[in-house]
Design goal:
Elements (H helix, E strand, L loop, with lengths): L3 E11 L5 E11 L3 E5 L6 H8 L7 E6 L2 E2 L4 H6 L1 E4 L11 H11 L9 H7 L15 H13 L5 E5 L7 H18 L2 E6 L2 H7 L2 E6 L2 E7 H6 L3 E8 L12 E5 L5 E6 L5 H10 L4 E8 L2 H11 L1
The structure holds adenosine-5'-diphosphate and magnesium ion.
Length: about 300
């Protein structure tokens, strides 16, 4: 038996319209980890996740979930994974308790082993247990989707953009639930997001996917550590002569007369940069910072790949 929660080999997906959404993905996710799948819209994240969930059929490749090959042991591989989908696809005529019971039935969980009350408590819907889904707020529906993904106690929980368009309170609740499931039950978590900070806060390891291919895969600290480039753009009060070279700080003068100071936020503080400038007699009229965003990250990664 393998020690990986998920193994993906040569995974390809071409949609019927001809779109090559996945172009040969190889990826392993360690058991017990919180694994982030990052990428811009259209990168192929949901396609990948929906293949794992058995909702989309792959065009080629091999997917193994908790040691079970999806094609050889479809029932076991499906039972090993629970997916909280990106879209709110709830039946409006079910109550939260009803939705959990139906889902448990679909997964063949015997009545005696169901734990709807416990799940309702965890997702904070105990007092809405008998309300119709159509009367629930967007946030409550999202929590219910999380609950549904958990009814069969999967080894692997997959969350597809769980916090897109969600308020801070719900986001924190989702994350504390996810952390708890990971730490206390040892559940392997895979989540997709396009928020770097979220990935940084939650994930042990990250894969970045772009145009249907994995462009980077590393521990979060290695990956984001390499991406903390910042640039401080200064408008000086008067023309500035040449500045000395300082370790870890690169200075260039731009055509508009501003000075761009590039540094690594983890090594050098903004205060270090400002005092270097002051020490060299630069009087600052205005200052702003530019930070690498995910787009820059993708660009630099696809370039170096
Ligand atoms: P992400 O979740 O990273 O935003 P998706 O997996 O949803 O990306 O989409 C990847 C690509 O596949 C996109 O170009 C998208 O338009 C296309 N796509 C997704 N679903 C379908 C579908 N059912 N039919 C045809 N093309 C699709
Ligand atoms: Mg998506």
């Amino acid at each position: 038996m393998t020690q990986h929660a998920i193994e993906i080999e040569g995974l390809k997906k071409t949609y019927s319209g001809g779109k090559d959404a996945l172009k040969g993905i190889n990826l392993t996710v360690p058991r017990g980890s919180v694994f982030g799948l990052l990428g811009p819209n259209g990168a192929g994240k949901s396609t990948l996740i929906n293949i794992l969930a058995g909702l989309v059929t792959k065009s080629a490749g091999k997917v193994t979930i908790w040691g079970w090959d999806q094609d050889v042991n479809p029932r076991q591989s499906r039972a090993a994974i629970g997916v909280m989908p990106q879209e709110l696809n709830l039946d409006p005529f079910f109550t939260p308790r009803g939705a959990l019971e139906v889902q448990a039935g679909l997964y063949g969980v015997p009545k005696a082993q169901r734990r709807s009350d416990e799940i309702l408590e965890m997702i904070g819907l105990t007092d809405k247990a008998e309300a119709y889904a159509r009367t629930l707020s967007g946030g409550m529906r999202r929590r219910l989707l999380l609950g549904k993904a958990l009814v069969h106690r999967p080894h692997v929980l997959v969350l597809d953009e769980p916090t897109a368009g969600v308020d801070i309170e719900l986001r924190q609740m989702l994350w504390s639930n996810v952390r708890k499931l990971n730490r206390e039950e040892g559940m392997t978590i895979i989540l997709t997001t396009h928020y770097l900070e979220e990935a940084e806060e939650m994930c042990d390891e990250i894969a970045i996917i772009n145009h249907g291919a994995v462009v980077a895969r590393d521990s979060t600290s290695n990956l984001l550590g390499a991406l903390d480039a910042k640039t401080m753009v200064i408008q000086p009060d008067s023309t500035v002569g040449s500045l000395p070279e300082v370790d870890g700080i690169a200075v260039t003068t731009r055509d508009d007369g501003t000075i761009a100071v590039s540094y690594r936020a983890r090594q050098t503080s903004a205060e270090d940069v400002l005092s270097m400038l002051r020490d060299n007699g630069v009087r600052i009229r205005d200052v702003r910072t530019e930070q690498a965003d995910l787009e820059d990250v993708f660009l630099s990664l696809t370039r170096s790949a």
